[in-house]
Amino acid sequence: MKTKYLLILAVLPLLATAAGPSGLEAPPESIKHWYKPANKRQVWLHTMFNLRRSQQAIEEYAGAGEGELVKKWVAEYAQSYRQIPEMVPEWGVEADLDALGGLEQAASAGDLAAVKSVLTKLGRSCDSCHLDHQAATALLMRGPDFGPLQVQGQPFRKAMEGLSNQVNRIKIGAEDGRWEPAKTAASALKQQLLDLGATCDQCHLDAYPKERILGAAIQEKLAELDTALTKGDKEETGKLLGHLGYNLCSRCHGVHRTLSDLRETISP
After folding, report:
1. Three-class SS state of 154
2. How far, rounded to the nearest angstrom, does the alpha carbon of residue 76 sit from its chain's CA centroid?
3. Are residues 258 and 1 in contact, defined by beta-carbon separation less than 8 angstroms?
4. pLDDT for 147-174, tens place per residue?
5. Per-domain residue ranges for the chain?
6. Which whole-number Å values give the CA distances from 234 to 51, 170, 218, 225, in the listed order?
7. Helix (H, G, I), strand (E, B) or coil at 66
8. pTM for the complete prediction?
9. pLDDT tens column, 191-207
10. Is residue 155 helix, strand or coil?
11. Are 77 and 55 in contact (CB under 8 A)?
């Protein structure tokens, strides 16, 4: 969990820088055509991967004096680079096509020192664009969107509110010695968690994420909570609720809710 939180915290300065004083800025609508579900492939993402791979190949072959291989990878780089303003015209101004032409000329002439110099300039333009747009685009296009999800016919957020309410009912009942209402809430909580778990496979293609969050270890703690409530053990009930809050709620929220909330900030 600490690693996940650190990753999230590392993204936040980028968001603040990219957003400026008025908040996060959503990317142009045109970029949606290059991501799922509008496209069968994550075309924009793969174009970025191609650029980075080509850039690395050019840098390494230029350093090794491999002029012919530099030409090959400059051609690959140029093809991907020119696709950027074609795919997202609104970002066309970010592309330095003059520098790209200079890179091609330097590669053709075998001037590897010039290749390295111009590639560095192009790299700075890439960094500038990423600083402005990468974090917000990744959140909007690849972050979780729970809006369409239904949990037993309820909107996802309504279902999550229901879980929170049941946890509070357990805590309130334990505080006031009203154990029967607390046990009723615990029973409802278990069922609602099962209902929530049925939605996991709409995003996750394997069983591991669900098992990690809602698997045998958590089911055992829910059973222990039942026992503590039956015994009227306030201290043990508090400990178990704390365990569930950290290992169930926070473990899922630390990734899903943080990214989802930021995504909604960009595109309400």
Report:
1. strand
2. 29
3. no
4. 888 999 999 989 999 999 999 999 999 9
5. 13-142, 150-266
6. 59, 10, 20, 10
7. coil
8. 0.68
9. 999 999 988 888 888 88
10. strand
11. yes
Query: Is CATH 1.10.8 what the domain over 13-142 is classified as, yes or no?
Result: no
DSSP 159-228: HHHHHHHHHHHHHHHHHHT-HHHHHHHHHHHHHHHHHHHTTGGGT-SSSHHHHHHHSHHHHHHHHHHHHH
Closest CA to 31 of 23, 20, 42, 22: 42
The mean pLDDT of 45-61, rounded to a whole number, is: 95
Same fold, 13-142 and 150-266: yes
CB burial of residue 103 (10 Å; 0-12, 13-18, 19+): buried
Cα gap 84→70, rounded to integer Å: 21
* CATH class, 150-266 region: mainly alpha
d(CA 164, CA 181) in angstroms, rounded, equals: 15
Distance CA 101, CA 74 (A): 10
